[in-house]
Amino acid sequence: MFNKVLIANRGEIALRVVRALKELNVPSLMAYSEADAHTLAVLEADEAVKIGPAPSSQSYLSIPALIGAAVSRGADAIHPGYGFLAENAEFARQVANHGITWIGPSPESIEMMGNKSMARQTMQNAGVPTVPGSKGTIETLDDAVSFADAVGYPVLIKASAGGGGRGMREVMTPGDLEVAFSSARSEAQVAFGNSDVYLEKLVLRPRHIEFQVLADTHGNTIHLCERDCSVQRRHQKLIEEAPSPALTPELRERMGQAAIKAMEATNYVNAGTVEFLLDESNEFYFMEMNTRIQVEHPVTEMITLTDLIKEQVRIAAGEPISFMDKVPFTPLGHSIEFRLNAEDFEKNFMPSPGLVTALQWPGGPGVRIDSHLYAGYAVPPNYDSLVAKLVVWGSTREEALDRARRALSEVRIDGIKTTVGFHQKVLEIDAFAKGEARTDFVERYL
Question: Does pLDDT of 164 surpass 80?
Answer without folding.
Answer: no
